[in-house]
């Protein structure tokens, strides 16, 4: 393996057996090395491959400036999130490596940020939050610094951003605000308390996460299920009244009119929630 670029003493860029450009890390792997020299594979610890060439080069620039140990933690977060079934984009390597470095810099300066979204993140994104908690432990093992639950929530928000491919105008806070508002509308309109450990509620919550992203990014479903929609509305006028309430909120606050497909999926989930309520009464 030939060295393409030396990033720092412990990180270089090389090419793997498939001809892909990768970042290789290991203690002393880049020490006094130059472009074109052979890589000492006995020093090789970990490798990182990003499918997008632009993102790969962005990550290389980040690693040049900060410790590759933070990239290792970011890599563990990506792996853990994917093990939880979350669809994580490679951009998380970049954003999280940089964030961990900044968080530790702030800690050394005595600056500790409060995460005002912590409770919502913990409630609406439990898998992401748990991975964030794991990351705090991994950071502690490497640095001896316990960044705490506020930072766990910040890390979870980075995971959510990588999961939903949010744009600059659609951040995690806005997504969470929309989810919170819709749940409040349904709760008040139907005078119910959600059974938050139920399958129906968890499915509804998952739907709302993606729904909120589409609404905020102005990417609605196409109207492809008009006939099914008509039948469902006729058969479930009570549940549909909740869809109307949500639609009014979305149109007034976010200037987005719900498509028939979006209304149909909301109707299906609301009906499940209401059916579940009847069974427990």
TrEMBL record:
* Superkingdom of origin organism: Bacteria
Sequence ranges assigned to domain PRD in this UniProt record: 54-169, 170-280
Checking PROSITE patterns in the record gives: PRD_2
Check the record and name the InterPro entries matching this protein.
Answer: BglG_antiterminators, CAT_RNA-bd_dom, PRD
The name this protein goes by in its record: PRD domain-containing protein
